[in-house]
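Hey, resending since the last one bounced:
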Amino acid sequence: MLTTDKNRMDEKIKAFSKFGALEGGGITRLSLSEPALQARAEFKRRAEDLGMTVESDDIGNIYATYAGAEDLPRIVMGSHLDSVRSGGNYDGIYGVLSSLEVAETVIRDGIKLRHPITVMVWTNEEGARFEPAMMSSGIVMKKWTKESMLKVKETGGTVTFGEALEASGWIGDESNRLNDKDYCAYFEPHIEQGPVLENEKLDIGVVQGVVGMINYDIILEGVSSHAGTTPQQYRKDALRAAAKVILDLWDKLGSLDKDLVFTTGEITCRPNVHTVVPNYVKFSLDSRHKDPDVIKRVVDIVKSLPSEVYGCKLSYEEHWGRSTINFNEQLLGFVENAAKGLGYSFKRMYSGAGHDAQYVSELLPSAMIFIPTKDGLSHTVVEYSSPEETQRGANVLLNALVEADKSL
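The structure tokens again:
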């Protein structure tokens, strides 16, 4: 079995961690910000030093390609290099750098491949500066229009995505976009962002797909009154009502299926004054599971909520959702074979988080590779995977790539 270079892989991680570095560790590298542009320039320099041809498309996605022995469609691998605010040095960028390390191994070790290989960087995967997340893969897959996305303003600012893209110098030709004519397969390595692999002492996650999810806003409307002069029995307290609904939902959802996850992560309370009984509360419900029947049961529970709680009117709005997607079985087989051949422990698993691969899978055969995350923590400055773990993921990618090259 083939292997990448652990020290070289670790050097890449450390080098790119300087772009957007925070004093206490971690990074803030928002899409098309100066730190992100510095990282892009370094990626381009390294790829060209390896003899790769670097192109971009009309929305700033980057494609670094090394020619194969035959005139065949490219095998593409990669992820993103933008981060959330106060993020870590592995989410997204690991997929790019492990793919670049695989390309470097192929080139420096003289591994002969039939297909060209491409290392790809997606623009604005996180959506931390310009919403929504996975913006560019969504544009490519026509989830939303390029025109509407170019008008999106940065969170808390006035610059639009289109303006930032124009200023970046990375606008290329639309014909360079990922497509099913010039490409034949897509691999995306990633940190797990959860505790399963570490807790089960496994080396590799063979990612079978991305779970479906549903998002609701649930609203309680009461009446504001003075906190000191309104007896409890006369109150229509929207926050009290919301608290009851949240606890009831958790009890009901918790009994559906052990693999169902659900979160209330956002709450709006008005007037949000300590001397006033709240008259309005809106809270989010994010629920995820691979089985669409379980998601349907979540929807049924939401729709069965009472119209009134403690005298407060209850309503709900579906925010957005997605169906479960499953990755390509042939590519998953290549990943499994690579892990077995290398002697790594592994399991098939689903991703609870969204990734560009879920959109790409509608266009090309796709697969993802997970490596463990320390304590399951991600989107935080303490995010960490060891040099041994990052190399194992790159080794699996390399051998899966070689098998794909022979078989596709």
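The first strand starts at residue 53 and ends at 56.

Sorry for the duplicate.
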